[in-house]
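Now for one record.
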Amino acid sequence: MSGENLILAMNAGSSSIKFAVYRSAHMLAYAFGGAIEAAGGQAARLRLDGGDPAWQDACLDADGSGAASELLPRWLSQHVPAADLRAVAHRLVYGHADCAAPAVLDANLLGRLRGACSGSTEHLPAQLALIDALRRYFPAARHLACFDSSFHAAMPKVARTLPIPRRYHALGVRRYGFHGISCDYIVQALAGLAGPPTPLAPR
C-alpha cells in the first residue's frame, strides 16, 4: 500500500474496536477494515475484511481492553505505512456541550476529554487509550474527533434539561444524546431517498 493517501476511521466501543482504511486520492475508496470483538476478553481475535489474505484471523493475544487498544495500533503500524496515513478519524461517544462539530485532537481537547471521563466511564477511557496509542504510532497523521453527541448539541433547553435539582445543571449534567453519527447518516440517507421537498399545493 506504499505511496498512497490513506485515511483510517476508528470506532472503539465498550466491548469492540472496529476500523476501516480508505484510499483518498480523488474520492474515498474502501481498502480494508476489521474488528476486534469482545476486546476485553482473553486472546481477542482480529477479524479482517479485505487486505492481504495472509492477515486473516490474526490473534492479538489481548488480555484486556487496554491491551487491545495497544496491540491494534501496533498491528496497524506494521501494515499501514506511516508516511501514507494522512488522517485518523476517531468516533467518540461523548464530548463537552461545546463539542458540536468534528475537531482536531490537540493537547487542549484531549485534556478536556480526560476531565470528562466520568460522563462515559464505559467508553471514553478506552477510546482515549486507543487515541494515545495511535498518536504514538502515527504522529504525522492528523487525528480528528467525531462526536456521537454532536448531532444532539442543538437540542432545545426543554429537551436537554433533566428532571434533577438545578444545581447539577451548573456542573454540566444534562441530556447529551448518543448515536448521533448514525442519526446524522440516517437523516441524510432518508433525505436522499425522499428527494427534494414537494411544494404544497395551493388550497
Summary: The chain has a mean pLDDT of 81. The chain has one domain: 6-194.
